[in-house]
Amino acid sequence: MVWSISALREGRADLAARLIEFPPEAVQQKVGDQLAIHAWELETLVNQLILTAKTPGRRYYPCRTFSTASEFTNYLREAEDAEYAADSDPKKILNEVHRIGQRQFPWQRQMPNLPDFYRPIYLYGQGGCAEAFEAAHQLTVSQFALIGFALYATFMGRPYVDRFLDLTKAGISPEQLEAGLRLLSIHATDAPAALRRIVQDAGAGAWPMAYKPSLLRSRPVLAFGTEGKRLRAPLPHLILQRVTFGLYYDVFQPGGGLRNEIAARFERYAADLVRAMMPALDVEPPYVYPAGRGRQIDAPDVLISQADKLAVVIECKATKLTFAAQFSEDPSIDAQARYAEIGKGVFQVWRFFAHCRLGRTRHQITPQTRGLLLTLDTWLVAARELQAHVREVAVELAAADPDILEEDRRPVLFAAVQDFEGLLIRTDEQGFLQTLDSGAEERFLGWILPDISRDLEPVAERKRYPFSPEDLVPWWGSFE
Questions:
Q1: Which of 79, 171, 251, 282 could be disulfide-bonded to 129 (CB atoms 3.0-4.6 Å)?
Q2: pLDDT reported for residue 106
Q3: Extended strands (E) in 120-255
């Protein structure tokens, strides 16, 4: 039923019609439609289904009708409303907007899309990360991505497949397929205990069901029957999410060298993206400069100049969102160390402005020089209070540095890399700089960059994304 509703949402009504009865108005649903069942609600329903103990015997709900899906969606919404009414604090309503955004915005992006396939493999699928993944799983990142891509394509056309499907024509042996399935799937009988462990490890036992962790993010494929012969993927898009963004959790080791490798690659990605998308701007490589008192300090990660004047200073933060940073009732406390790292990034931009003013760097800033904090995850989307908290962290750090004056504490915008890409794809150099200028205005506080640009100028012709996955996974382009 969930697979069918997902197919309806995406316009594959001919496939859904083989499995479920539905009214014409349910096809290609949009947010706000009367019959809309949202993808994030489907994900929550699947997780609740996994957690609910099953009583042996006959099932009484006709899961081949859209009306049943609507009925359970309405139950879910009523339960979520009741949880919010019981636990909400009117003083923290803006934090609630942040939690809602973290749940809904990823599903509202166009999926799949080329940047979200290329970028995670670029970051987590090369160098030491690729070596660590292959050593741990006897499978290359390229092979894992191909298995995920093949399964995604298959599940887009049907709700279940045989575990022993043949991918040899795609260059995947049965042993490699099984290695991939060990990462992608879990048997339905093991799923409840696994999901409870995930919830417990995240400290999310008391959170509302809407914000609890999802098993489908780590195991998007559920196996049924003897030896798990039948595979189901109720939300096929999460397979691609697992073989791209999910690579991080396969390779990352706290305190290890891979964290620095990922951060350095993120900085290169941001610089290369600006060079490719904004050719009229100059992007300089990072450098180290003497900052006084015997210190050597790294300049911010991406320095963008226009007509020999420093136009944009970008500090990149590859810090990953935790469940607490996304969904706890007070992320600034429950994920304090993570948000402190984001605040440190703002401080680093201010410190560079101060050192430019004092003549310690290669650059001179102008009144038009902008600051931007670029994050790998969607840290501060629709989160005014959290943005204010991050700035307070930066102010506290700046107060301890005598070099930083009030004039150095310029507005620093926040952008997730997906939104940064979206801005560069839809505008030119002038529109890019104008968007950053406008983003510092009070009326745009909390807005994402593409929406600011859209409000300022008509939609321009979208540019092509400049990178190809074929540079990372050689099988790209080999299949229709």
A1: 251
A2: 83
A3: 160-162, 185-187, 221-224, 230-232
Q: What is the spatial distance between Cα 111 and Cα 376, in angstroms, rounded to a whole number? A: 18
- Which one-letter DSSP state was computed for residue 227? G
Q: Name the amino acid, one letter, at 143.
A: Q
Cα gap 286→87, rounded to integer Å: 47
Residue 88: the pLDDT is 66
Q: pTM, whole model, 2 decimals?
A: 0.91
Structure tokens belonging to residue 243: 């073989």
Q: Tens of pLDDT along 236-293?
A: 999 999 999 999 888 876 556 788 899 999 999 999 999 999 999 999 988 999 988 8
* Residue 262 and residue 269 in contact, taking contact as beta carbons nearer than 8 Å: no
Taking a C-beta distance cutoff of 8 angstroms, is the pair 445, 462 a contact?
no
pLDDT over 70 (residue 144):
yes
Look at residue 396 and tell me whether its pLDDT is greater than 60: yes
pLDDT digits (tens, 9 = 90+) for 88-98: 666 566 667 77
Distance CA 267, CA 374 (A): 9
Beta bridge partners of 296: 290
Alpha carbons 165 and 153: distance in angstroms, whole number: 13
What does DSSP say about strands 221-224 and 309-317: parallel, antiparallel, or unpaired? unpaired
Determine contact, residues 440/367, Cβ cutoff 8 Å: no
Q: Assess contact for 279 and 337: CB atoms under 8 A.
A: no
Question: Among 14, 42, 41, which Cα is nearest to 28's?
Answer: 14
> What DSSP string describes 354-395?
HHHHTT-SS----TT-EEEEEESS--STT-HHHHHHHHHHHH
Residues ≥6 apart with Cβ < 8 Å to 434: 456, 457
Q: ∠ CA(1), CA(155), CA(145), 5° rounding?
A: 140
Residue 279 vs residues 50, 200, 275: alpha-carbon distances, Å: 50, 49, 6
In degrees rounded to 5, what are phi and psi of residue 401?
A: -115, 110
- Summarised one tens digit per residue, pLDDT across range 316-368 is 998 876 767 666 666 656 566 778 888 999 999 999 999 999 999 999 999 99
Q: Tokens for 14? A: 């001919």
CA distance linking residue 13 with residue 36, whole number of Å: 14
What CATH number has the domain spanning 257-456? 3.40.91
Average pLDDT over residues 438-442: 90
| Per-domain boundaries in the chain | 2-87, 125-250, 257-456
